[in-house]
Amino acid sequence: MANIKEIVEGxxxxxxxxxxxxxxxxxxIPIEMAGRFDMKPEDLGALLAACYNSYSQVGTELxxxxxxxxxxxxxxxxxxxxxxRGLLTIIAGKNAYIGMIRLEAKRAIDNLxxxxxxxxxxxxxxxxxxxxxLPDSRSIADILARFEKDGQ
Amino acid sequence: MRIINGKIYFKVxxxxxxxAGKTTSLRWLFKHVxxxxxxxxxxxxxxxxxxxQTLLFDFTPIQISPNIHVxxxxxxxxxxxxxxxxxxxxxxxxxxxxxxSQKKELEHNREFVEEFNRYLKNAPRLNNAVVIILFNxxxxxxxxxxxxLARMLKLENYPAYSVxxxxxxxxxxxxxxxxxxxxxRLEQEARP
Lengths: 152, 192
Known about the structure:
Helix content of chain A: 40-55%
Distance between the termini of chain B: 19 Å
Largest sheet of chain B: 8 strands, mixed
Number of strands of chain A: 5
Oligomer: heterodimer
Distance between the termini of chain A: 48 Å
Number of domains of chain A: 1
Mean pLDDT of chain A: 86
Largest sheet of chain A: 5 strands, antiparallel
CATH architecture of chain A: 2-Layer Sandwich
Number of helices of chain B: 5
CATH superfamily of chain B: P-loop containing nucleotide triphosphate hydrolases
Number of helices of chain A: 5
């Protein structure tokens, strides 16, 4: 089965006019992306998550669930799709067929959902397994010392 | 805390009444405390109203070690943006509760303490977050002393600093305490 990177990049190659794909955590943390973006993925992720959550809240007030968001800019179309604990956003040129993008998004989400595990489930397990080089008391002190100096 | 692609992501939120000094505090920290090489972006991303107040949030991500990121948000303080504020509390690891120490703001602060307590009640995971109270505007006249405010607002159980977000007084110390406590919790969690 394809991995996350291959699935995300696959959308770029299969759908004409697609210029970028970004997969973010529900909180906006970039997980994977393909294509070129003129802004930092961290900023883009935070904005996309905020947009989605705002529309989701509007839906809640209207008694509706939000499936996806389609935005049309001057030269671009943006299609944002919800998946379990994540959001898949596809950006395409203005001539792109939204139907094709939605279909591809649906397929990709089905595949992504199968291989992505909720990070909350992974958390305890990964921390315990010490897969990370976690900071000890000494490195915590080193990090904190960096904030003692003026950031300028 | 989130773990994504082998990195740990902490989330820190500035919460408090409108014009309490959340954005000003973040801007001061960004300019004076956070080293350049830790900044992932060179400016704070803000979504503001047409009159310059925070509409959705201010946001800046920093990288404090090769595998630890801290994402810092400020929540909008206006009452009518309650619903957008609520969503920022999801999975938060650290909260700076910014209190406007001016006497005239006491009731408004009380409302926010109530809102904060509601979040704690409805989202038990929030109880694991590091909470630090910033009694802001200590450079102004006609304010309640921090200790009195802590008692009046029933916030005595949290670590607190009397700060001026405009001058930066005690903000560095508060930020260091926040990062230290979050890292210590992570260290404890990993201990066998």
